Amino acid sequence: MSDDASVDAAGRPPLIELKGVSRIYGDHFAVRSVDLAVPAGQFVAIVGDSGSGKTTTLKMTNRLLEPTSGEVCIDGEPTRSQPPHLLRRRIGYVFQRIGLFPHLTVAENIGITPQLLGWPAAKIAGRVVELLALVNLPSEFVQRYPAALSGGQRQRVGVARALAAKPAIMLMDEPFGALDPLTRDALGTEYRRLHDKMGLTTMMVTHDVLEAVLLADRIVVMRTGTIVADGTPRELMNDHPDAAVRALMDMPRRQARRVAAMLDGEAARG
Amino acid sequence: MDERIGAAWAVLPEYLGEHVVLSAAAMGLGLALSLSLTIAAVRSPRVRWPVLLLASLVQTIPGLALLALFYPLLLALAALSEHLVGRGFSALGFLPSLLALTLYSMLPVIRNGVTGILGLDPALIEAARGVGMTEWQRLKRVELPLAAPMLMAGIRTAAVWVIGAATLSTPVGQTSLGNYIFSGLQVQNWVAVLFGCVAAAGLALIVDQLLALIETGVARRSRTRVLAGVVALLAGVAWAAASRDDVDGSHYVIGAKNFSEQYILSALIADRIAAEGGLATLRTGLGSAIVFDALAAGDIDAYVDYSGTIWANVMHRTDVLPRERLLREMGEWLRREHGIVMLGALGFENAYALAMRRDRAAELGIRSITDLAAHSSALAIGADFEFFARPEWPALRDEYGLAFANRREFQSTFMYEAVATREVDVITAFSSDGRIAANDLVVLDDPRGAILPYDAILLVAADRSEDSLLRRALEPLAGTIPVDLMREANYRVDRKDGPEPPVAAARWLATRAIAPSR
Question: Which residue intervals of chain B bear CATH 3.40.190.10?
Answer without folding.
Answer: 251-349+453-513
